[in-house]
Structures are given as structure tokens and as C-alpha cells.
Amino acid sequence: PNSKLKKDEL
Amino acid sequence: NLFRIAGDISHLVSILILLQTIEKGKTTSGISLKTQILYVVVFVTRYLDLLTTYVSLYNSLMKIFFIASSVYVVWLMTSKYNKKFKEDQDVFPVKYLVGGSFVMSLLFHYKFTFSEILWSFSLWLEAVCILPQLFLLQKTGEAKAITTHYIFALGLYRALYIPNWFYRYYSENRLDLLSVSAGLLQTTIYSDFFYVYYQKVLKNWGFNLP
Fold this sequence. Notes:
The structure holds two protein chains of two kinds. Chain A is low in regular secondary structure. Chain A is elongated. Chain B is mainly α. In chain B, helix 1 (2-25) runs antiparallel to helix 7 (145-172) and helix 2 packs antiparallel against helix 3. The chains are: A little secondary structure, B mainly alpha. Chain A binds chain B through residues 1-2, 5-10, and chain B through 4, 8, 11, 49, 53, 55-56, 59, 62-63, 66, 110, 119, 161, 169, 172-176, 179.
């Protein structure tokens, strides 16, 4: 899984 | 995706219910000030990235709304309706929640930086910060139906994030283990309330249908 997370959640 | 949108809407609705309840009744009785203050802490610590990263207009607007509304509710509770505010039953020991969340954030984070620790802290704190409200509900026994609708919508929001995380895992190969763990904990805390809500509120509605 993607480890570079984009924090686009609230 | 659908779950994410539904979750966000549910979160939005919960706050609108809360604001409407306070404004209409001109009272904040039955609402835990401690939980509301914790929400200010949650949103401020999580949305610090508003200043550094831009995701989307939707994202920024929602973040600003959540910070502003939580501060507004605390202001309503402490200043505007202060005279009617008498909550000697709101006595949940919040320091354990804050302390526990802080320890969890030190143990689990993606990077050992100030903002990442705070972000993780906000996840754990959000998971548990409804406890003073549930505690108050249990102490006062009878709650106004509207307060339970508020808690239900608030709980539903994180519960809906769970299928959203499944969806994103399969469609984007995205897995945010921290959000998922804290989210599962949060939903577990609400589960008992969900059950009671289902038993009391939903069944009564069904019963009263013309």
C-alpha cells in the first residue's frame, strides 16, 4: 500500500 | 466516493443539529462542554496543515467550518448562554483522554515531527472525546431526543469512513493505518450508543408512524 499518504480526509 | 461524502455530510449535519438545538432551546443543558472543548483541540491540532498544504477548496472550507463551528459552540456554551449553563454532572476526567491520546501519538505516528505528532494526537483524541458526552448522557438519564440525534450523526460520520477506507484501499491502494485504527476505536466507542439509539429512537419512530 501507499506509504506516502496524502492527508485529504477530514 | 460515496461513503466519504456521506460521512462528511453526516459530520456536517451533526454540527448543524447541535447549533440548531442550542439556538432554538436557548440552552446548552445536556451538552458536555468538555467534549466540545476537546473538539476544538481536535480540529485545531489536525487542521494545522491548512496553513501549509492545499488539498482542495472543499477540503479547506470544511476544515475552516469545523474549526469555526467548534469554537462557536464553546463560545455559546461559556458566554452567550452562560447564565443557564449549570453542568455539575459534566465531570468526566478529561486528563486521561488527553494524556492517553498524547501517549498514543508518541507511540504511533508517520514522522517524528511536531505537526505529524499533533495530527496523530488529534485522531486518538477524536476517537475518545465523545466519552464525556456519553458519560453525561448516562448520568442525567433522560436525554433530549435531539441530543441523541446529534451523537448519532457524529458517530455515523466515522463509521462511514470505514467503508471509505476499504474502498480507497482497493481503488487507490491507499491505506492510512493510523486513521483506520483510531477510526475503528472511535466506532467501537459509539457502538453501545448506536444500539441504545436503535432500540429507543428508531423503534419509537416506527411505532409512531401514521
